[in-house]
Amino acid sequence: MTNHLTVISGPTAVGKGTVVKYILEHFEDVTLSVSATTRDPRPGEIHGRDYFFLTSDEFDRMIEGGEMLEYAVVHGHNKYGTPKGPVLEALAHGKMVILEIDIQGARQVKQAMNEADLIFIAPPSWEELVRRLEGRGTESKEEQARRLKSAEVEMKAQTEFDHVVINDEVPVCAQKVLDLMKA
Ligand code: 5GP
User: Fold this and answer.
1) By CB atoms within 10 Å of each CB, which of 99, 138, 154, 173 scores lowest?
2) Average per-residue pLDDT in the chain?
3) What is the reported pTM?
4) At what angle do helices 16-26 and 170-182 cross, to 10 degrees?
5) How many domains does the chain have?
6) Rounded to whole angstroms, how far apart are CA atoms 55 and 60?
7) CATH number for the domain that contains residue 36
């Protein structure tokens, strides 16, 4: 049987986004849920494609309206959440749906939809995770330190997941994730 709803989570900078992008580019029957966030767009990010960029009030209205499948404050400041409607619609059309969300969100999805399959993407080692975070250079030193602190906590949560896949090489990791989705 195919697991239609897959939650992909893992520590910051592990490369979840790259793995998910690889899956979407190579396997067209997979849909990625577009999250809502209160953080500002980064250069090149497009509203509705990368995220729905909302004000804090707009975000809270969606929560109050019961429109979020899950939501969380991530890395200590901004809110991120999964709009429920598009996920249910894609599942109703028989699509395989991926949520790429943080660990607090993953827990909430499992509670709301027990059939969801939770996959934790892990780094080959802690040192490699630090190297990847520092290497991508998209965060200030202060933000890097904050994210590494979250990552320590996030790494401990992997035992709560249905599967752990190590991201050593992206195509290999992506294939393993896909095999789990189709298992
Ligand atoms: P970024 O700001 O780098 O795009 O994302 C920061 C973190 O937010 C990532 O760890 C990502 O997994 C998480 N995230 C993105 N979308 C969602 C969401 O809809 N819900 C939750 N709970 N976390 C999310």
Assistant:
1) 138
2) 94
3) 0.93
4) 70
5) 1
6) 9
7) 3.40.50.300
